[in-house]
Known about the structure:
The structure is a single chain. The protein folds into 2 domains: about 5-145, Lysozyme; about 160-220, no CATH class. It has helices spanning about 5-15, 55-75, 80-95, 95-100, 105-110, 115-120, 135-145, 160-170, 175-185, 190-200, 210-220, and strands at about 20, 35. The protein contains 11 helices and 2 strands. The chain is about 55% helix and about 5% strand. A two-stranded antiparallel sheet has the order 1-2. By secondary structure, it is mainly alpha-helical.
Amino acid sequence: MSDLSHAINLIRKYEGFNEKAYPDPTTGGEPYTIGFGTQFYPDGSPVKRGQCCTKEKALEYLFHEVSIIDTQLVKLNLGLDTHMRQALISFIHSIGWDPFLYSSVIDNIEHEDFCAATGELGRWIFDQNHNVIGTLVDRRREEISLFLTEVNANPWSSTQVLLTAFRNYTAAPHQVRAIRALEENINPYVLSKFANDFDIDEDPWSTYDTDDIDLLFSSYH
């Protein structure tokens, strides 16, 4: 197995180690989980109530699971770099293979729309009652950061793009349209945090549609 230490460390960090099998919080029973998030042993048999394992065995189970996920990802032929692959391994280990296949992540990656792909990753932060789970927010943030490691290594990283845009902002219609399009595609929790950090009190243009804004600013340019 190639070096997948980033994925393994992410999973270990957020799953934590459990020596004794514990029930699913939704059902109160199956599926049971043990070790670092293991629900099925390498032989395919499910984890059962009352079973225990050592940390060494838990790592063995985790390495086996990560190897299987990695093999399945490679078969999808998505052209992933190493960091993307490891981020998705952690993500899939968290939500399950079937939910991943039915999400829009794969389509977005195939279209090289990595912004939309990470936006989809960031939506998987809720429990069965649609409440946000803090640890999942942190885990998705780390997975997204890992996923974009090589994307952000190019000269036009997202940080540089936004800072350049702020410096060059003149309220031209095409700039306003671009900002609104960006807002529509940003995870709402990330956008809300940015608004708080940036100390935005209100949007003076919230009552105007795009055509109105184009008309208002056309006389200035």
